Structures are given as structure tokens and as C-alpha cells.
């Protein structure tokens, strides 16, 4: 961790700040979906969402199902190629279910658009999105929630290349417990 830490220029959100914000999001979701039966299916977008998903679901007080899809668009670079593909599909049947898609970050919006279209084709009742970070400065595609879906986000992210808490550069740094800005000399 010390070696990784030296690759970080500055920390944007500490482990404590992350934990507090995740608790707030989980409380909102628990309240919003509290009256619904069956409870929603929480779908994490692998790989980036794995830590946020793990923290979030442990704080949601509902009998949710948890599943994953894998969508990839960045490969080993820092820029989305604009054509994400679904390479790993759900196990849970989401037909007529309310789904909450969990992401680590929404950047161009291509990944979420792809996931939402995919869920729509499976006949979901609604799609909500809960993303830890939102980087609106880089949005290219305006994704649309489905049904009565809601949008939850942890923080608005400035336009830096950030890593940690699930976010990677070339598959590294996902296991940093905080979110930080990677020193530019490491990817330029
Ligand atoms: C990253 C991130 C989001 C997506 C956001 O995933 O985890 O899923 O990019 O970018 P977008 O809004 O421009 O589509 P990535 O494709 O790098 O795969 P990963 O989760 O395995 O890192
Ligand atoms: Mn991802
Ligand atoms: Mg990635």
C-alpha cells in the first residue's frame, strides 16, 4: 500500500469520507425502496463497482438480490473507446423487477447506456442508478432511467484521472481504500 500510495498526487475522498457518504446513500435507497415487494435487484457493474457495491449493500436494510454484469470500454488506456460490450451477463432473472445499477463512476455515459438498454431488453420494471462518482464534464451520452427509476450519486468528480476504491488504471490501484488523483507521469 505504501508503494501504491506514492503514485498518488492527492487524495480527493478519504476512507472516512467515503464511508459516511455510502451510509447516506444506503439510507436513501432503503427509504425509497422500503415499501416495494419484491425488493430491488442490485446490479454491480464489474469490475469497478465491486468495493462500492460491497460497502453499499451491507448498509441497505432490505432483502435485496445482488448480481453483476461486466461491461468494458477502457481496456488499458485512460479514454473510453465509446463502444462498451457486455462480456458477462446476469444470473438473476430481472424480468418485472426493479433494478438498481451500481457503478463506481459515470464518465462519458456509454457504459450506463449500454447496461440500461440491456436491462430494458430483459423486461425490467424500472432502472435506478447509484454511482459513487459522477463526472458530468465528460458526458457524451445522456442515459435515461427507466420507469420510476431514481438517480443517486456519491460525489461529483472533477475532471482528473482518478483511481482507487474500485477505479483502476490498467487494472491497478483498485484496492486503494481512498480515491485519489494518479500522478500524470505514471500514465503519460
Ligand atoms: C469504467 C468505470 C465505469 C465506466 C465509466 O469501467 O468503472 O464502468 O468506465 O465510463 P463511461 O461512462 O465513459 O462509460 P471500465 O470500462 O474501465 O471497466 P472496469 O470497471 O473493469 O474498470
Ligand atoms: Mn466499470
Ligand atoms: Mg477500468
Automatic annotation (TrEMBL):
Predominant place of localization: cytoplasm
GO molecular function: hypoxanthine phosphoribosyltransferase activity; magnesium ion binding; nucleotide binding
Cellular localization per UniProt: Cytoplasm
Chain segments annotated as coiled-coil in the UniProt record: none
EC number: 2.4.2.8
Record-annotated Phosphoribosyltransferase domain positions: 17-169
Keywords (A to Z) from UniProt: Cytoplasm, Glycosyltransferase, Magnesium, Metal-binding, Nucleotide-binding, Purine salvage, Transferase
Any one GO BP annotation for this protein: guanine salvage
Known cofactor(s): Mg(2+)
Pathway(s) served: Purine metabolism; IMP biosynthesis via salvage pathway; IMP from hypoxanthine: step 1/1
Gene Ontology cellular component annotations, sorted alphabetically: cytosol
Family the entry assigns: Belongs to the purine/pyrimidine phosphoribosyltransferase family.
Protein name, as recorded: hypoxanthine phosphoribosyltransferase
Parent-protein start and end of this portion: 124 to 311 of 311
Amino acid at each position: 500500500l505504501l508503494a501504491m500510495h506514492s503514485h498518488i498526487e492527492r487524495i480527493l475522498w478519504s476512507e472516512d469520507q467515503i464511508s459516511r457518504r455510502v451510509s447516506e446513500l444506503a439510507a436513501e435507497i432503503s427509504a425509497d425502496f422500503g415499501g416495494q415487494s419484491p425488493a430491488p435487484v442490485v446490479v454491480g457493474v464489474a469490475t469497478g463497482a465491486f468495493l462500492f457495491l460491497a460497502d453499499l449493500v451491507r448498509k441497505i436494510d432490505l432483502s435485496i438480490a445482488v448480481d453483476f454484469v461486466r461491461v468494458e470500454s477502457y481496456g488499458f488506456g485512460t479514454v473510453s473507446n465509446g463502444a462498451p460490450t457486455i462480456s458477462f451477463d446476469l444470473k438473476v432473472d430481472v424480468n418485472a423487477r426493479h433494478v438498481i445499477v451500481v457503478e463506481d463512476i459515470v464518465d462519458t455515459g456509454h457504459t450506463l447506456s449500454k447496461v440500461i438498454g440491456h436491462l430494458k431488453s430483459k423486461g425490467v420494471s424500472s432502472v435506478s442508478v447509484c454511482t459513487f462518482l459522477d463526472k458530468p464534464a465528460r458526458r457524451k451520452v445522456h442515459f435515461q432511467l427507466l420507469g420510476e427509476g431514481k438517480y443517486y450519486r456519491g460525489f461529483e468528480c472533477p475532471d482528473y484521472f482518478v483511481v482507487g476504491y474500485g477505479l483502476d488504471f490498467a487494472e491497478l490501484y483498485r484496492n486503494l481504500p481512498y480515491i485519489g488523483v494518479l500522478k500524470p507521469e505514471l500514465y503519460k
